[in-house]
Write a structure and sequence with these properties.
There is one protein chain. This protein has about 450 residues and is an alpha+beta fold. The protein contains 11 helices and 16 strands.
């Protein structure tokens, strides 16, 4: 697992240090077009206009690149810097369906960016404005937090974000962006936030606002001291991220699969599971739901014969009725992936890059294959070989999926030494939309020796 981490870390640092200044190097727009069509066009559309075939099932809506309006940047003016666009691709946008793609190389990111610029001449022909300078941060104190709270309550933040910062202010239900689509204020108590979670990131957002949305900039309204006090208050109401979780690190999506001797237990309280470390996974929303689960934890074991994934998430109420059940699923590529650019589309694959889906629902496990959205096909009853156990206890689901390492049928996904998986959750208590409530990015797993 260390080997994988250092490879991804090198790619990440390489992008951050060289992506913007290495403009003399020719990039492959053809490769960028291919990657865009596989991984981006279903949401953003083949023309980059935000009208992909699944856009109607998403909220917030995918970005329209042809408009030239980009929400997240560190620069002034209408045109964002290349690094800002690359970071959005790298990290995704929390609270939306936009996943991060840390797995891709710098060359792949730059090729997608080169193709993306073809949708709007300004991106290709105009330079980004100057960077936004963030002044030195003063020490956080109880007094600065209290001053920030008073500023938050008096300056209009409550109207959208609500008195407690949960995104439920009286004006939240009528907000729209410049494209006329409804837009929901971020729940500031949940993190990470959309465009950076550090104090400097939040200060910058407060300074320049978020273009294309009702979120204004306060650079000419608040003093530097007031701005920092507001930042300190916002950080004080945010729930802490899981220990050791860094939303900007490639390590966030690496899952070690611990090797054990003997049978893999289906009891989540078994010593084998208790001794195994878990990783926190931040989930994406297909459709904005304030109460949707944003975190799950994953552990994994193998014994050279079988593999098992144990996922845990919080849920206020247990639903196991066959027609109205909470559910979880694991998605795996049907092909052995040797390079991340070979990964199938995250939303149930495609006709040329199919996926195997393991589902737990109403206490039972099923095996499916899919070749795109709406192309889900259950395997024959005699070929079902995913087993496991789901237990609800004290406000949390504990679900273990188990299968042989070696595929039993040609419809089963291979389990290589180094592989990829994504995870999805359904909560029956939430309003129904097409697809899961939340899902993960591609997670990299590695079988331990």
């Amino acid at each position: 697992m260390k080997r994988v981490f250092f490879i991804l870390l090198a790619l990440s640092l390489s992008c951050q240090q060289r992506a913007c200044r290495d403009t003399s190097r020719e990039v492959s727009t053809t490769q960028g077009k291919h990657l865009y069509e596989v991984h981006c066009a279903s949401c953003h559309g083949s023309k980059g206009d935000g009208k992909g075939p699944i856009a109607e099932f998403l909220w917030p809506k995918p970005r329209d690149f042809t408009s030239g309006i980009f929400k997240y940047r560190r620069t002034r003016g209408a045109v964002p810097a290349d690094l800002d666009l690359l970071q959005t691709m790298k990290l995704g946008i929390p609270g939306t369906s936009m996943p991060g793609w840390d797995l891709l190389s710098m060359e792949d990111w730059r090729s997608i960016l080169s193709y993306l610029k073809s949708f709007n001449p300004r991106l290709a022909n105009e330079k980004a404005g100057p960077s936004v300078d963030t002044p030195e941060e003063p020490k956080k104190t109880p007094e600065s937090i209290q001053s920030g709270r008073e500023l938050y309550e008096k300056s209009g933040c409550v109207a959208c974000h609500g008195l407690q910062g949960k995104g439920d202010g009286p004006g939240a239900i009528v907000l729209k962006d410049v494209w006329g689509d409804r837009i929901a204020p971020r729940d500031l108590t949940r993190g990470p936030l959309k465009w950076g979670n550090t104090t400097r990131d939040i200060y910058r957002t407060l300074m320049i606002g978020i273009p294309g949305t009702p979120m204004p900039g306060y650079e000419h309204t608040f003093s530097k001291e007031q701005m920092w006090s507001l930042v300190h208050y916002l950080k004080s109401i945010q729930r802490p991220l899981p220990e050791g979780y860094d939303p900007s690190s490639p390590k966030r999506n690496l899952l070690p699969v611990t090797k054990i001797n003997g049978e893999i237990p289906l009891d989540y309280e078994d010593e084998a599971w208790e001794k195994t470390s878990s990783i926190p996974v931040f989930l994406k929303h297909l459709w904005h739901e304030p109460e949707a689960t944003e975190w799950l934890t994953i552990k994994a074991l193998h014994n050279d014969k079988e593999i098992a994934f144990y996922i845990q998430w919080e849920d206020d109420r247990m639903n196991v009725d066959p027609n109205q059940s909470d559910a979880a699923a694991i998605q795996l590529p049907m092909d052995t992936i040797t390079n991340p650019i070979e990964l199938p589309y995250l939303g149930m694959g495609s006709a040329s890059k199919k996926v195997n889906i393991w589902e737990w629902k109403a206490g039972s496990f099923k095996d499916f294959n899919a070749g795109g959205v709406g192309q889900l096909k259950p395997q024959d009853l005699m070929r079902q070989n995913v087993t496991g156990k789901g237990v609800y206890y004290q406000g949390s689901w504990h679900v273990i999926f188990r299968r042989t390492l070696r595929p039993a049928e040609n419809e089963d996904a291979p389990i290589p030494q180094l592989g990829y998986a994504s995870f999805a959750l359904w909560d029956e208590d939430l309003p129904k939309h097409r697809g899961p409530e939340t899902f993960s990015e591609w997670i990299v797993y590695e079988l331990g020796n």
